[in-house]
Design a protein that fits this description.
Length: 124
């Protein structure tokens, strides 16, 4: 699920959230934290890839390590990405707004096992 970082309304500063209330959707605080953490990792990877592609356009390759070039465009792009909301803030906002899709394989497996048992009982 790609994210448009420029349009994100996630807070730039740290906010205190009611963890118990947030975990009501899953019924487990640790599962909720795991869901948000995995989504934050996905967002972080997307941001790094996008930043890398933009900075690659300005890359200059030299053989001399002593030469350092300051490129204004690179600095501005880097500053822009530093000012964006952090991936955890974006992921938490998505979780609170029910924009994150997640599944629970244990529950699905148990459900399928129950259906199989009911089918066998009906067949007998």
């Amino acid at each position: 699920m790609p994210v448009d970082f420029k349009k994100s309304t996630a807070p730039l500063n740290t906010l205190t959230n009611n963890v118990v209330k947030m975990s009501e959707k899953t019924g487990n605080v640790y599962e909720m934290v795991n869901i948000i953490a995995k989504r934050a990792n996905q967002i972080s990877i997307e941001m790094k890839d996008e930043l890398g592609k933009k900075l690659q356009e300005f890359a200059t390759y030299t053989d001399n390590l002593e030469e350092v070039f300051e490129n204004r465009e690179q600095i501005e792009i880097s500053r822009y990405y530093e000012r964006l909301p952090k991936p955890v803030s974006i992921a938490t906002q998505e979780y609170n707004q029910d924009k994150i899709y997640y599944r629970r394989p244990q529950v699905v497996a148990k459900h399928n096992d129950k259906k199989a048992d009911e089918t066998r009982k009906d067949a007998e």
